[in-house]
Specification:
By secondary structure, the chain is of the alpha/beta class. It folds into two domains: 85 residues, Nucleotidyltransferase, domain 5; 149 residues, ATPase, nucleotide binding domain (Nucleotidyltransferase, domain 5, 2-Layer Sandwich), CATH 3.30.420. It is built from six helices and eleven strands.
Length: 254
């Protein structure tokens, strides 16, 4: 099975063999070359790995970039010779959605929720450290009850640099102390300790509404940056969205 998570910055493709994620390939989203670029890059990747795409018999993808949906659907359908399935909230019967506007829920958030609930089997919260920082609360019976969204760490940094003339780009690592003695330390302190506090505060409020025994999972490319939060999470898996896609794909008929 060929799966794909189409995000605002990157698109991650994965291959599922016998229920296991065996290959992943990351490409930039919104390539100006369109379908030609994605199909060429995927076929080249398969060739380099010695993998025959003819063995792929199903294609499933999630996307938060509407203008890419048809392109990705066509590419994945061509490679697998089957109609690609686009994930929509509610497609998986074991995880329902109870929010005011279900169609506004990102399919990546839904996939994360499917994987997290499938792992814990009880009330849980999933935090995705991506372009956006998202928190999703899921009930004991597998219903998505609500979401909180904030700018991602990288997004906040990019905004800070692009809108100020004298602030330099800095590495995402904790400074020696909170009170920075130079510009780099000051930015690192404000961003990283600030996000650490925000994550803890939002999780506390989610648990007040869900229950203190709610399990917490973290995913996303920057989920390992805030290492001071390691004890907060019961599960850290950067491939949680792909795991959700796998579960949905295995459960869904073409």
């Amino acid at each position: 099975m060929l799966i794909a998570d189409i995000g605002n910055t990157d698109s991650v493709f994965g291959v599922i063999e016998k229920g296991v994620l065996t290959h992943t390939h990351r490409l930039r989203s919104n390539s100006p070359e369109g379908a030609v670029f994605y199909e060429y890059e995927l076929r080249k990747f398969f060739l380099e790995k010695g993998f025959g795409p003819q063995t792929l018999q199903k294609a499933v993808f999630s996307s938060v970039v509407p203008q890419m949906n048809q392109t990705i659907s066509d590419v994945m359908s061509n490679i697998t010779s089957s109609q690609a399935i686009q994930v929509k909230p509610g497609i998986y019967s074991k995880v329902k959605v109870d929010i005011t506007k279900q169609d506004e829920l990102g399919s990546d958030i839904y996939c994360n929720s499917v994987a997290t609930y499938n792992h814990f089997g009880k009330k849980c919260i999933v935090v995705d450290f991506g372009t956006a920082l998202t928190f999703t609360g899921i009930s004991d019976n597998g219903t998505i009850l609500g979401v909180a969204i904030a700018p991602g760490i990288g997004t906040a940094l990019k905004s800070l640099f692009s809108n100020t003339a004298q602030l330099p780009e800095v590495p995402l690592e904790f400074p020696e102390k909170a009170m920075g003695t130079d510009t780099v330390m000051s930015i690192q302190s404000g961003i990283l300790y600030g996000y650490e506090g925000m994550v803890k505060n939002i999780l506390q409020k989610f648990r007040m509404e869900l229950g203190e025994d709610a399990k917490i999972a973290a995913t996303g490319g920057l989920s390992g940056i805030l290492h001071t939060l390691e004890g907060v999470f019961d599960l850290v898996d950067v491939n949680l969205t792909l795991e959700g896609l796998k579960i949905i794909g295995e459960d869904t008929q073409e």
